[in-house]
Task: inverse folding
């Protein structure tokens, strides 16, 4: 039933993507309106789905599990994509880049990420800081997604300009300067947000470890795959931020690094659970659970 | 109802003839008034651009001016010899007028295929005619459809996509690299004609600074004055390259002016900012390997020409689909005009027939009752007129409404129109006139 609900809005986004792809062959105002309309419809259905999760849970924001966080992330990215589709001139193919990202996040979360909550048993200050941890990471992930989409647009535009091909029929991209600016701003915003989210998570885990006990209150040791991959991700983002401000690495290098950093972020967030690696993050409710 | 279009364009007449026949802004109003005075009861629109001068006329079959009359009018209005212009004039009749106007609005008849200006010029011509009561119901329908079809063709075929001149391709390129130009510096190296033309186009983007480098300081100074830029001595070229975001190079040097290693150092000093280099010189001023550098987009004049040619060939590919659209829309528009005209004629026939019957019956009554006073006669006539109007009110409303529906779907005659004709015993409308192009 849950997957059927997800299929409803994922299918609508899929149709919107098909309409967006049709821009290569069909030039019509109607196509643009249909694309925006379908994206908006998918976003509304997803909003209802998330509202239902929030209503049935304890927290107003459904970010208590990797699944919920990715769903909210895709929802925010879809909203930003929709805003850009309406704001930018109609011929700019924003949906070409944002809709596959939204679809990938939704389908990846629905099929590979366990649904169980990671802190529903927490109470008081721990529950509060757990939510703050989730919100910071989510905000960081939104910025990283934007940087990723802008990076892809930059690379596609640069490739076209270098190959000296004329613009495809009905398909244009933002200028290099515009993509670079969005990428830079998103990276600069993502790094402190991710750092704060990870720091709060680490402190929370240290407090739980000091308290001792077992089960969900045991805390997450430093050698946990989730912690190690999170640290790795932080290093990649730190490197990306450094590269962002190194003139010699501007352009293609930064964009490639952005893509790698985004892949690392996705792995850290959902890869550990999806691969069923033994992790105490959210244990023992993760689908695989410790072996 | 007949339609006629008569005029000259860039194919049928040299510039001197087009100029002689042109209706400039100052003479357009006078021309429209003179046309209406010379041929009352007709509708007129005058389309006058650099590449064409055309008079569009619509009116009843007996009143519309013929080709000879309109030729004589044009010659008289412009003070020319009719024989001088007659050989250059091209005319279209009836449905061919609609098709021709649609092709003009879609820029298929333009000197530069797919150019965007003509649609605005058609709109202006129509607006001028409306302001001076030159356009009536026929041209409202035809010209409003022409504007719609012009947009539709561009939308469906991409006819207006991509620029066709090297200079405008360069401007498009600049827009694909940069977002804003107020904070950008344009550097012009050399002072070639092509560079001048490109800079003229780039000036429209309002760049923040323009630097001019030339081996000849006087030439640099002159160009700087012309473009409101800053002259830079040639030995400070590297510094200028560091400051510049967009470079136009157009020197006549036999060897590259900027080599690869030199530009690598420049790009490092520029902190690897985005750069667009338009090398318009032959032979090249910039080493082609510079284009491989990250953040640098280097286009040679051949690349710009190739893009312009690709754009032209893409536009040409749009001609056949555009003609199909125009053919379909022409038939629909002309049928809609005819439906409107038929409905108008039917209303007139209906009114005439009712008037005829009323007058006959009144005459008959007044002959039989000679004792009636003038006041009585007037009252009875008034009552008969009111009766006639009240009886005809609903049939007239039904015909108007059917005409509006028929204009939206003009493939077949509306059954209400046929029914009214049949019920009131009115004659059928005249058969549609055949199409013909006259030259």
Result:
């Amino acid at each position: 039933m849950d997957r059927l609900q997800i299929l409803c809005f994922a299918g609508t986004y899929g149709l919107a993507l098909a309409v967006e792809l049709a821009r290569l062959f069909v030039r019509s105002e109607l196509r643009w309106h249909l694309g925006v309309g379908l994206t908006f419809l998918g976003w509304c259905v997803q909003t209802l789905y998330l509202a239902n999760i929030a209503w049935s849970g304890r927290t107003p924001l459904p970010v208590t599990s990797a699944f919920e966080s990715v769903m909210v992330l895709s929802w925010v990215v879809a909203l930003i994509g929709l805003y850009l589709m309406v704001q930018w001139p109609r011929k700019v193919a924003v949906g070409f880049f944002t809709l596959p990202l939204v679809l990938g996040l939704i389908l990846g979360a629905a099929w590979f990420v366990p649904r169980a909550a990671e802190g529903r048993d927490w109470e008081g200050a721990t529950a509060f800081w757990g939510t703050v941890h989730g919100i910071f990471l989510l905000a960081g992930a939104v910025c990283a997604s934007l940087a990723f989409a802008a990076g892809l647009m930059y690379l596609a535009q640069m490739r076209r300009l270098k190959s000296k091909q004329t613009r495809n029929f009905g398909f244009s991209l933002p200028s290099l300067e515009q993509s670079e600016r969005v990428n830079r701003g998103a990276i600069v915003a993502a790094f402190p947000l991710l750092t704060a989210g990870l720091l709060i998570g680490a402190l929370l885990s240290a407090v739980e470890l000091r308290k001792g006990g077992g089960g969900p209150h045991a805390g997450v040791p430093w050698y946990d795959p989730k912690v190690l991959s999170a640290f790795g991700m932080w290093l990649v983002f730190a490197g990306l931020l450094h590269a962002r401000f190194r003139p010699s690495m501007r352009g293609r290098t930064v964009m490639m690094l952005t893509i790698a950093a985004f892949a690392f972020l996705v792995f850290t967030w959902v890869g550990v659970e999806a691969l069923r690696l033994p992790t105490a993050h959210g244990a023992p409710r993760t689908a695989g659970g410790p072996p | 109802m007949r339609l006629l279009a008569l005029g000259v364009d860039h194919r049928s007449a040299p510039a001197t003839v087009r100029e002689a026949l042109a209706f400039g802004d100052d003479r357009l109003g006078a021309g429209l008034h003179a046309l209406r005075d010379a041929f009352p009861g007709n509708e007129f629109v005058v389309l006058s651009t650099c590449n064409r001068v055309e008079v569009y006329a619509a009116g009843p079959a007996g009143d519309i001016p013929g080709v000879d009359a309109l030729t004589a009018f044009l010659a008289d209005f412009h003070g020319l010899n009719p024989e001088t212009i007659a050989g250059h004039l091209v005319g279209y009749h009836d449905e061919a007028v609609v098709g021709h106007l649609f092709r003009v609005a879609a820029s298929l008849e333009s000197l530069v295929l797919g150019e965007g200006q003509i649609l605005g010029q058609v709109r202006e011509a129509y607006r001028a005619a409306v302001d001076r009561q030159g356009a009536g119901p026929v041209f409202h329908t035809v010209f409003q459809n022409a504007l719609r079809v012009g947009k539709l063709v561009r939308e469906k075929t991409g006819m207006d996509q991509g620029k066709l001149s090297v200079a405008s391709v360069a401007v498009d390129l600049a827009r694909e690299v940069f977002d804003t130009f107020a904070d950008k510096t344009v550097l012009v190296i050399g002072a070639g004609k092509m560079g001048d033309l490109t800079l003229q186009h780039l000036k429209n983007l309002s760049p923040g600074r323009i630097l001019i480098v030339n081996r000849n300081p006087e030439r640099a100074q002159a160009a700087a004055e012309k473009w409101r830029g800053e002259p830079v001595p040639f030995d400070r070229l590297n510094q200028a390259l560091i400051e510049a975001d967009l470079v136009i190079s157009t020197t006549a040097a036999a060897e590259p002016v900027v080599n690869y290693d030199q530009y690598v150092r420049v790009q490092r000093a520029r902190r690897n900012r985005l750069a667009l280099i338009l090398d318009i010189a032959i032979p090249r001023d910039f080493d082609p390997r510079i284009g491989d550098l990250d953040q640098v987009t280097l286009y040679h004049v051949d690349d710009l020409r190739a893009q312009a040619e690709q754009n032209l060939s893409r536009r040409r590919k749009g001609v056949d689909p555009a003609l199909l659209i125009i053919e379909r829309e022409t038939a629909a528009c002309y049928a809609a005009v005819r439906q409107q005209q038929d409905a108008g004629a039917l209303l007139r026939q209906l009114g005439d027939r009712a008037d005829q019957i009323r007058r006959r019956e009144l005459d008959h009554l007044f002959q039989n009752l000679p004792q009636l006073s003038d006041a009585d006669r007037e009252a009875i006539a008034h009552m008969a007129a009111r009766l006639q109007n009240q009886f005809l009110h609903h049939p007239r409303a039904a015909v108007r409404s059917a005409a509006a529906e028929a204009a939206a779907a003009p493939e077949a005659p509306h059954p209400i129109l046929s029914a009214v004709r049949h019920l009131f015993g009115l004659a059928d409308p005249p058969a549609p006139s055949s199409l013909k192009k006259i030259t």
Summary: Chain B touches chain A at residues 155-158, 161-162, 173, 175-180, 268, 271-274, 291, 294-295, 297, 299, 303, 306-307, 310-311, 314 (CB under 8 Å). Residues 433-439 of chain B have pLDDT under 50 and may be disordered. Chain B has three domains: 2-161+315-328, 166-305, 338-389+402-429. The first strand of chain B starts at residue 2 and ends at 9.
